[in-house]
Amino acid sequence: MAMLRKHGLYGGLLVMAFGIGWVSGRGVPLEAAQAKNRVFELRIATVSNKEKLDVLMNRFRGGELKIWDRVGMKGVGYWVPTPDSPKSETTLIYILAHDSRKGADESWAKFNDDPEWKAFPKTPDLGPVTVERTFMAPVDFSPMK
Description:
Helix content: 40-55%
Oligomer: single chain
Radius of gyration: 21 Å
Strand content: 15-25%
Distance between the termini: 34 Å
Largest sheet: 4 strands, antiparallel
Structural class: alpha+beta
Mean pLDDT: 82
Order of helices and strands: HHEHEEHHE
CATH class of the largest domain: Alpha Beta
CATH architecture of the largest domain: 2-Layer Sandwich
Low-confidence stretches: 1-35
């Protein structure tokens, strides 16, 4: 009640609505999570050497991620293996979020046809890049959906 007096009726109602939404959103059934069709794309990119990994990360820093975002791909996180791991100097691991599996394919097609991407500086050359892709759907107890 003190909160209602301090922030007024609307502030208190907003706080209560947020709290109810937060509590009711916990433990969403798997069917509801999958009904949204949101998928995550795990990508593991491997290049030939450390210098090429720097080139790849500089492309991401230099604007490639902004193009992805514009065409509907949302970056969730980006990692490199720890120094004691195999391929630590040649691998970038990242996860993208898509509205659906079909949406992922459409976003990649838009990206490949994007005029800004086509004009994007491609030097220095990356050389061969191997990309492993895995599409993932959240389970009912996943905090990220």
